[in-house]
Amino acid sequence: MTFSTYLYEKLQHVWRQNHTHPFVQELGQGTLPIEKFRFYMVQDYLYLIDYAKLFALGAVKANDIGTMGKFAALLNSTMNEEMSLHREYAARFGISLDELEQAEPSPITLAYTHYMLHAANNGSLADLVAALLPCMWSYWEIGVELNQIPGASEHEWYGEWVRMYSSEEFGDLARWCLDLFDHLTEGKPQAELDRLEMIFLNTTRYETLFWDMAYHQETWPIR
Ligand SMILES: Cc1ncc(CO)c(N)n1
Questions:
Q1: Under which main EC class is this enzyme filed (predicted)?
Q2: ipTM exceeding 0.95?
């Protein structure tokens, strides 16, 4: 069994909380209040800035030219495609570039991105990928699952989100990340696998906390 399959099966009870979260369910049903999605978009833009840095660090930590090139391509497509799509999508919700760039990260956004950057900066390439994998994999799975709800991909406001994350292009990225993780963890000592499992578990949990933060539009309780 690959390490990703092992983690996936072992952590299903945590993993599924992302799928069943009211934010995700209401997004798929098209009933999510627009202000909650608007709040999510701004925080997710801030998230993507640090997420892109993980790809840059992946290029630094890669041990072969092929992997290095792939991380460079991921950095480029996140910075110059996904984020510009995000800006256009945000504009439809009346969110200006200024608002996106001057927004303050919420406590959860800050904790999540800094946790990922800490794992990536201080660990091996496997640590970096363990931090990254739940984000990509769970968004892809959620995208595919929501895309099966009749009308979800054509929804006036949320259809674009569903189409983006259920796309073959996004699926290819998630699959590449999965294969890399399984390759990097093959035959690794148990102590290292245990550390990677903790990182994977924590970023899976942070995904749920991120949906929760958006659903409740949580900012700093202290201004
Ligand atoms: C919080 C979060 N996780 C994962 C993704 C997938 O890119 C995203 N855009 N935002």
A1: hydrolase
A2: yes
